[in-house]
Write the structure tokens for this entry.
Amino acid sequence: MTEGNFVDYVKMHVSSGKGGGGSAHLRREKFVTKGGPDGGDGGRGGHIILRTNPNLWTLLHLKFKRHIRAGHGSNGSKQTSTGADGEDIYVDVPLGTVIRDTETQEIIRELTELDEEFIIAKGGLGGLGNAHFKTATNQTPRYAQPGMDGVEVNVTLELKVLADVGLVGFPNAGKSTLLSVITAAKPKIANYEFTTLKPNLGIVQYRDFQTFVIADIPGIIEGAAEGKGLGHRFLRHIERNSTLLFMIPADAPDVAEQYHVLFNELEKYNPELLDKDKLIAITKCDMLDAELKAELKKELDKSLEVPYLFISSVAQQGLVELKDKLWAMLNKPESND
């Protein structure tokens, strides 16, 4: 999927259908005198329903669909016939979609379950026909209820990608290269910062036909939680990942310092991210000889409290161990605390 096709933010105006009016019909038939009221109820207005679709990965199909309207309910008729309900409109969205009120920015619902449905705008109720209002003292009511108006809502749909592993790192840390090597994804790779402008997803093929999903998030810089760089816009995607893989190049001035900067940015954005499993991948290790790698390992053992691995995507070093470690972290038994 190209970067231009990754849409994770859409604003829409949705309008549910108006309910049909009740009928005030009076029965008139040959040989039947004073047949009385027989007006039927109006039909319900159509709903706007959001429905999760596992075959969708982005909100691209809604990019230019800013107004969605449901059908109106039909009026009731004679012989207590109820009017037809308005047509419900189903809007398919990918798993991980957050529904937010555009005016108040309040989160209405998060859709994370398979085939989950949520009525974002309920259709108006149909009015009652005059058959409901006849009594012993009012045997010929010549009135009925009008249908209720539908609902108009401005909503914002935000996507938080559902991936098992999220790649976290500074720009040009080798995240896209790793994704291209261990998955079939084809992200843009170049020797300059902020090559990745949108998240990329890839499926890792593991042993015995097992798979897990990995997400390449645009590079984070210091101050991202306050809005600097590109990472602040995409930090929300990391919230859905169960494991975070921090990627730091071996030629970084201070590997431990870079990890702590990334860690602090996540803590500022959402402290709950600290509860996720974490692993550090020291990338581009093909540039290190055995002596330099031993020295770096000695330093990291003292300054890091998180497990780490040495890998090289280009030289295909340490990738099997990386996949084994990630698979073990993703499938570890849950504690009963």
About this structure: The first strand starts at residue 9 and ends at 15. The first helix runs from residue 175 to 182. DSSP finds five helices and 14 strands in the chain. The CA atoms of residues 13 and 26 lie 40 Å apart.
